[in-house]
Amino acid sequence: MNQTLTVKSLNISEKKGVRKTPVPEIELNDLGLVGDSHAGSWHRQVSLLGLESYERFVEQAGRMLDPGDFAENITTEGVELKDTKILDRFVSDAIELEVTQIGKKCHFGCEIIKEAGACIMPKEGIFCRVIRGGVLKPGHTFTYEPRSIRFRVITLSDRASVGVYEDRSGPEIEKLIHEGFRESQWRAAVERTLIPDDVPLLKEQIETAVADGIRVIFTTGSTGIGPRDITPDVVIPMLDKEIPGIMEFIRTKHGERLPSALLSRSVAGMIGTTLIYTLPGSVKAVREYMQEILRSLEHALHMIRGIDSH
Q1: Are the C-beta atoms of 283 and 172 separated by less than 8 Å?
Q2: Which residues of the chain have pLDDT under 50?
Q3: What is the DSSP letter of 291?
Q4: Which DSSP symbol is given to 161?
Q5: DSSP 3-state assignment of 257?
């Protein structure tokens, strides 16, 4: 069921870290809110805070505050903004906003905390970039569209593909993705497929995934030095950028304990804006590789989306 977000107040200031003043209308362009201190060529162009958050603050603090007092550009009602995820969108016929950050760190010496005694923006406010701009007035409504980072897991195995045994590494990757993103600011959607060790078929699967808007591809299997191990040979020529450090680190870390791990030819890189990681086929190796990959994956997604998460 679609949720509706209603604009209750529009607020502006020429200085960061201070309360914003309500105005009857604002103009949004590709830099954000015209005339506001947060406008610019970055990911935090527009800030939003819900009346739901104000009500919680009033109940806890026992004092009334007005829209804009927590320095949000748009005060809203109808959607719990703190529960949104990066990439979610607020869409109307004329204007479209994309969520880029949930919460923030307070400015040093923030006047809002001094005056209000506390600030709820760090935990419950969100930030958006403008996808489509226009003139915005109180009462404007948006449809809330949750969106996900789409993952595709491709298992390569001649025998599993014909039912000789069950694919276990693909489901393991899917499980670890969901576990790794459980507390994340991103929402993950995972698709899986199973194919034999076949060069044209793997290339087709990867090209289709990229064209379909898949943002992260994991392959599992066919990364060794056997006669049917073909994954790195297919993937490397397709890369626009290689990310060698991840796989080098994993091979070095586990190769000290298990020298056979050094025979893996796993690679990581980017095809356009799609990340791709090629993992070995054993469940044990999948767990070892995913443990390290997940440590940097969110940061990689931030970088690709132009979000400064430092």
Answers
A1: yes
A2: none
A3: H
A4: H
A5: coil
